Amino acid sequence: MKIEHAAERDIQSIVECWVALRVHQRERRSARPSPRAMLWQVKRNFERPHCHYFVAKEAGKVVGAVLVQLRKGGRSACLSRAYVVPSHRRQGVMRGLESVVVDFLRQQGFSTLDLTVVPYNEEGMAAWSALGYRPIKIVMTKQIRS
Question: What is the distance between the alpha carbons of residues 103 and 35, in angstroms, rounded to a whole number?
């Protein structure tokens, strides 16, 4: 498996990962994410200097991806999205991606990396906990518009 900073040739594969992630996150809702909107978002983020995509590839095919956003001030970053295709889960793909991200951030002088995971995503909660992440706050949401 090869892990690298994503290139423009990886954009479509990243979009496919994000669409699959959104489908997984919205299993309890009927809204389906728009691949077109996701493509626009990924392309836009590629142009932003504070956004960095990393991909894991096997045999040249993207099997996992993460998006890291650097926060202003240069000390804290946020792992905004992360996904591993189902066929490659529990094989160390996310561990490898996260390790490369941490190394990248350390080289840039960053000291903190956080992320958000929804509590019903038990696999995600377990994976991030195994990588050393700990909850430090709870964000609660109320839907005010139907």
Answer: 31
- 146: in domain: no
What's the whole-model pTM score? 0.87
- DSSP strand E in the chain: where? 2-5, 51-58, 61-70, 76-84, 112-115
pLDDT tens across 79-123, in order? 999 999 999 998 999 999 999 999 999 999 999 999 988 777 788
- In the block, residue with structure tokens 């958000």: 116
Instruction: Give me the CATH number covering residue 94.
Output: 3.40.630.30
CB distance 45 to 80 below 8 Å: no
User: Has residue 144 been placed in a domain?
Assistant: no
Which residue range forms the structural domain that includes residue 109? 2-130
